[in-house]
Amino acid sequence: MALALGAGLVALAIVFFIVQPVAKGLHASLEREDDELTETEARKRVALLALRDVEYDFLAGKLDDKDYRSLKGELTAEALAALEADEKARAGTSSDADAALEAEIAQIRAGIRQGIFCSDCGAQNESGSRFCSSCGHALHAAAVS
Ligand SMILES: [Zn+2]
After folding, report:
1. How far is the CA of 106 from the centre of ligand 1 (A)?
2. pTM here?
3. I want to staple 43 with a disulfide (CB 3.0 to 4.6 A). Which of 5, 38, 82, 100 is the partner?
4. pLDDT at residue number 9
């Protein structure tokens, strides 16, 4: 009897040890970006919440050991997949934004390179400009080549 109680307490301590960082991590992410959850962030949150619920249900005695193990295995796999997807999504959006910015910069550079020089003041204007940005003199399309 004493042995079973001791083993039970050890199991409880282990589960508590596992739950704590999960619950903490969950809190941190909730506080950080609650207003703008992406699809992958939402998936991650759901997976972590489900994992936490399984731990609580097991602690409350609603789940037996077999159910707990199989559920936890599934949910841990899902949580890991969700975390990975979220990491990828973050990396994806940042590199996409970088690529868009690079393209924009390249476009502006190209525009300046083939820009129109004002026949009045000599200022260089972006290609497609109809009036000089420096003096307001009308620019001629013929100047573009
Ligand atoms: Zn001008």
Report:
1. 24
2. 0.40
3. 82
4. 74
Q: Helices 39-59 & 65-113, crossing angle to 10 degrees?
A: 160
Match 């910015």 to its residue by tokens: 101
3-state helix, strand, coil in the chain (%, to 5): 70, 5, 25
The DSSP secondary structure of 90-121, one letter per residue, reads HHHHHHHHHHHHHHHHHHHHHHHHTPEEPTTT
Percent of the chain exceeding pLDDT 90 equals: 19
Residue 20 pLDDT: 65
C-alpha torsion 78→73→70→14, nearest 10: -130
Q: How far is the CA of 102 from the centre of ligand 1 (A)?
A: 29
